[in-house]
Design goal:
Elements: E1 2-7, H1 12-26, E2 30-37, H2 48-65, E3 69-75, H3 84-97, E4 101-104, H4 112-125, E5 145-148, E6 161-164, H5 169-177, H6 181-189, H7 191-194, H8 203-216, E7 221-226
Parallel strand pairs: 1-2, 1-4, 2-3, 4-5
Antiparallel strand pairs: 5-7, 6-7
The structure holds zinc ion (ZN).
Zinc ion binds near residues 8, 9, 111 and 114.
Length: about 240
């Protein structure tokens, strides 16, 4: 299979589905990661262009850990809007990857870029094979299946699918840790909300993966819900 994980910001994919992506890649599937924005507000000190460049390079390096290719639509962080141009750009990106399965944000999350990325990915899934919708990359033969990963901090999310990532937890940690530019930024920016105890904001990933593992009888897991829409249903288990 070809598997594409589309997040809003560089680091979203790594936090919530990189264990599953690592498992897919190890099993021989072709994996792509992508973001709709370039993360260009993710620093208190660096110019926007500089932090965007750094974050895209971090995402590229994280993808490279599992031999995946990273793509970015380069919209401004927190300024991703539903436009004709954005729809076409997203269709073109998906067509490049020819995915059998797309992983993306859950429709209800804490951040508008996350929610809109989720909505637009679901919206355009059915448009991928339509030849009359012209993009530089040609139409694909089929509509990809779609699975949602957890919203940030897993609030109001009950997975219906679990992936045992116990053997891939080290790769997940390695992929998350490529995003070093975000560790201090997140600690400073969300200090009031997360408190001093959480020294590294990737700590939450450890807790959530362990918690999901507890629920499904393994050490570490990632949770998903398959999209429930026409033309995206299947009788098969597609997650690894
Ligand atoms: Zn994000």
């Amino acid at each position: 299979m070809n598997v594409l994980a589309i997040g809003a910001h560089p680091d979203d994919v790594e936090e919530y589905c990189s264990g599953t992506l690592a498992k897919f890649a190890t099993q021989g599937h072709k994996v792509f990661t992508a973001t709709t924005t370039n993360g260009n507000i993710g620093s208190a000190t660096l110019p926007m262009e500089e932090i965007a460049r750094i974050r895209k390079e971090e995402a590229r390096q994280a993808a490279a850990v599992i031999g995946a290719e990273y793509l970015c639509l380069d919209y401004d962080d927190e300024m991703f809007f539903e436009t004709r141009e954005a729809r076409i750009a997203l269709i073109n990106l998906v067509r490049y990857c020819k995915p059998d399965l797309i992983l993306t944000h859950y429709p209800h999350d804490y951040n508008p870029d996350h929610e809109l990325t989720s909505k637009m990915v679901n919206d355009i899934a059915v448009m991928i094979p339509i030849a009359k919708i012209e993009t530089p990359n040609p139409p694909c033969e089929k509509i990809p299946l779609l699975a949602y990963w957890e919203p940030v901090l897993s609030i109001n999310f009950n997975p219906t699918e679990y992936v045992d990532i116990t053997d891939y937890m080290d790769l997940k940690r390695e992929m998350c840790n490529k995003h070093q530019s975000q560790v201090q930024w997140m600690a400073d920016n969300y200090k009031e909300q997360i408190g001093d105890k959480q020294k590294n904001y990737f700590d939450d990933i450890e807790i959530i993966a362990r918690f999901r593992g507890l629920q499904c009888g393994c050490d570490y897991a990632e949770g998903f819900i398959m999209a429930q829409n026409a033309y995206r249903m299947t009788t098969k288990r597609v997650l690894p």
